[in-house]
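Task card 7
Instruction: Convert sequence to structure tokens.
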Amino acid sequence: MSARDKLMRRRLLVAVLLILAGCARTPPDTPSQSEHAMTLDQRVSGYAGTPTDWRRFLDCWSREVGQARSAGPEPLVATVALPLEEGALERTIEERQRALGVALPRSYLDFIRAQRPQADWRTIAHGTGFLSLGAVDTVARLDPEGLALAQAQPLHADDGRYFVYGIDQDSATTRSRYLQDALVVGKYGDSLYEQIVLFPQARTRDGEMEAALLGWSGTFRATSFAELMRQLHYFDLGRSDQLPPYAQDRLRGTCADAMPMREVWWK
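Output:
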């Protein structure tokens, strides 16, 4: 099936689901609060890295991908970061944060300082990779049809079910209203919906944003962009046929060790 045919099929599916949603008269997306749940803003993210740690981690990832496969999909991470004068990069970071109206989390900014991806949305829309900082934008702006599809039947898990991380989380647990302002930073699969996003609405006590891999069969959520990348590298190396989460014990002895984490409280 051609890319055009896939797009037309997707648009038709969006339209059908929106019609069905209207007929079903779905009630408003009202949060259900769990009285005893510990929300993310009461927890630490575990991130303890620096741009130097990111370079070490990404170099290890890139090197192992090269050893693991001689052909196939392009690797998610590049081997060499493009140079950019530090002062100019910091100005770009400040300008982009102002444009987005949000303070980006430290783990993601440290990644940008280490890797400096250069792709735009058109380049990776039907592939994989990371957007340049200037191309990062909301799901609403980059993929409005995908947003409409996801929100056709809105879901909002209560705190007790939603704020669960690691291997205990349920991939079907989601909050549809978070997608509107979710920031797309990259893609991990060929499908347009297989996006890597940050949720500004869910932050840890130390200021990290919840990060997620969106997918048709479910969503993987992590306490930070750094933890999501530790998990994603394991999948990218072909060590599992299933998307994350993977237990912390399973990541030991891999490139994930190069990304320092502290006070990890999820399994």
